[in-house]
Amino acid sequence: MKEHIKLTVRTRWPERLDAYLADTLEDVSRTKIKAFCKNGLVRVDGVPRKGSFSVQDGQVIETPLPEPEVEIDIIPQNIPLDVVYEDPHMIVINKQAGLVVHPGAGVKDTTLVNALVYHFNQLSQSGGTRPGIVHRLDRGTTGLMVVAKTDAAHAALTSAWQSGEVTKVYQALVWGRPDPESGEVESRIGRHPTDRKRMTANTDNGRFAHSRYKVVELYPEAARVNIHILTGRTHQIRVHMAHLDHPVVGDALYGGRRHMALVKQFEAMPEYPMLHAGLLKFPHPKSGEEMGFKLVPGEAFEKIANALSVWPY
């Protein structure tokens, strides 16, 4: 019997069912989603709905978890992993900076997936060519990630992620001194109209994104902030902080001219954005018990923070 995913819609505006699922379940092809909808396999509040149906905030979607669409052919590679927790259902790791999560455009190997296949005998296959992967962190982002060992765990974790049962708090170093020192950012986030590598806020065709930030420490020209994301859009924190004119330190993609001007003056510029996934809470995929993990940023992050605390000299 196929595993099913249940997820609660989190959106500020009504959206087409097939489009919402395509954006939310990134590992499932649009073709498969449209076929599920056409064949009456996707239910909204218990009623089968077509792909054109408009879903609204709070509605519950139930959809099958598809079988892998392609044969998995991942080369195991002995890349070191920092394992924080492991049980028969899942693994929690502390991802290092510079490690891409899974193979994709322009990246065939040397990814987290290659490392997982090498180090673990069992991983969920629900992600197709992304075995075990429930959620992602950007290449340069460090910190906590959970990986599914079984398809049942994958389905449960995916449902938790999409239904708002997961708490994710990041630490970031940002340029400037945010005023006020705490606040919220709500916007649409979508693909930039001319630069496909970038996302942008308040685009007409984007998905609703919601972040909360709080300054932890102020520096002369920067700040350390905690950022709680209530949605999980691509580059969300980097886009929202840049939208506030406080781009993440080390973020060449969203820092703009201000970033580059500061780079020339700052002697210890980081190679990646200073962003760390430091707090992660979610229900255990088998027992439902709340699991909580907390990690402080690593040495590279703290080195930059220390430099910012006395910069400019």
Give an overview of the whole structure.
The chain has helices at 17-24, 30-38, 112-119, 151-162, 236-243, 252-265, 299-308; strands spanning 4-8, 15-16, 43-44, 47-48, 54-55, 60-64, 83-86, 90-95, 142-148, 167-175, 182-191, 199-201, 207-218, 222-229, 275-283, 290-294. The protein is an alpha+beta fold and 313 residues long. It has three domains: 4-64, Structural Genomics Hypothetical 15.5 Kd Protein In mrcA-pckA Intergenic Region, Chain A; 73-161, Pseudouridine synthase, CATH 3.30.2350.10; 169-276 and 303-308, 2-Layer Sandwich (Pseudouridine synthase). The strands form three sheets. Strands 7, 8, 9, 10, 11, 12, 13, 14, 15 and 16 form a ten-stranded mixed sheet that branches. A four-stranded antiparallel sheet has the order 1-6-3-4. Helix 1 (17-24) packs antiparallel against helix 2.
**Strand fraction:** 25-35%
Integer tally of domains:
3
Instruction: Give the SSE order as H and E letters.
Output: EEHHEEEEEEHEHEEEEEHHEEH
Q: What is the radius of gyration computed over CA atoms, rounded to a whole number of angstroms?
A: 20 Å
Total count of helical runs of at least 4 residues:
7
Let me know the largest β-sheet. Answer: 10 strands, mixed
Name the helicity range: 10-25%
At CATH level 3, the topology of the largest domain is Pseudouridine synthase
Morphology? globular
Oligomer: single chain
Give the name of the CATH superfamily of the largest domain.
Pseudouridine synthase
- CA-CA gap between termini: 65 Å
Low-confidence stretches: none
Mean pLDDT across every amino acid position: 88
CATH class descriptor of the largest domain: Alpha Beta
The structure class reads alpha+beta
Could you tell me the number of beta strands? Answer: 16
CATH 2nd-level architecture of the largest domain: 2-Layer Sandwich
